[in-house]
Amino acid sequence: xxxxxxxxPGDGIGPEVTGEAVKVMEAxxxxxxxxxxxxxxxxxxAAMDRHGVPIREETLELARRSHAxxxxxxxxxxxxxxKAPVRPEQGLLALRKGMGVFANLRPVRVFPCLEAxxxxxxxxxxxxxxxxxxxxxxxxxxxxPKRRWxxxxxxxxxxxxxxxxxxxxxxxRVGFELARARRKRLTSVDxxxxxxxxxxxxxxxxxxxxxxxxxxxxxxxxDSCAMQLVSNPARFDVLVMENTFGDILSDEASVLSxxxxxxxxxxxxxxxxxxxxxxxxxxxxxxxxxxxxAPDIAGQGKANPVGAILSAALMLRYSLGRPHxxxxxxxxxERALTGGLRTADIAAPGQRVVTTKxxxxxxxxxxxxx
Length: 370
Ligand code: IPM
Ligand code: MG
Fold this sequence. Notes:
Helix content is 39%, strand content 18%. By secondary structure, it is of the alpha/beta class.
């Protein structure tokens, strides 16, 4: 079996970190014989410069015909004009929608050797192992009307928060299934004291809870959940929420693991079998680090490639059906970190800092030899 992976490096630090993720994948192939063909294409600002659009229809077609897409990041000051009709981010949104990847998994782990690098007190970080399950193809990001206009008393704008029962049900199912395969706790996050979509969400979650008597379901309001994510993060297992809440809370949760540069994500178009471990589950997916294009440090070798490398591990697990290889990459990352390797974002004062490439080389070498 040969796998086909579409690589979309994008803008800013995207190409640097994606390059390291592919390097680590090649080390996996060298070690295990895993056969992967890589196809590269442009997305975001890079695609706008070259083709005038943030993503081409043929790129979407390539994505749909691949086993997985490895994505870097999009955006940057060059394309940041608020009046511009097209933005690089639209390339990513079109890709998510075009691939139908409605379920975004953002696991947050705290490597013990990085506890001191997080702004949260080490005793609060002990035992943190959570997954944010973010609905990715609906809600405020996509629903219409979405526009700006001029009124006689000034400008106005509207975005729409809309969810159907079917959309809510399928993302909640991902949450319940993941929780079932983990520590069996599901926190459904909403704003049911104010939002109608949230009241529907809560109702559906409670109904589905009956199908999962082994999973402890709790409802949390998004504001109080945001507070608990930093004051008592170890209490969480799986958290499931709508698109915008997930965007915000996953950035917040990243401070637990010391840096946004550490976090991977998997976006899937169907409910993964269990947690993807062991059962050869496969579904075409989109894999991207949670961080953005960080234009301020682009091209300087300062970016942390761990989020991208761990995203490749998730790709091995969820789209290529290779749980052992996924675990190998995760162990290699852990070993590199316990061995003292630090990019600038996770280094303590005075600690030696390695470049993006040095971190990638070290992880690739560990994958070959561990
Ligand atoms: C993310 C990013 C994207 C999002 C942007 C780049 C459109 O912040 O993946 O979290 O808002 O989904
Ligand atoms: Mg975000």
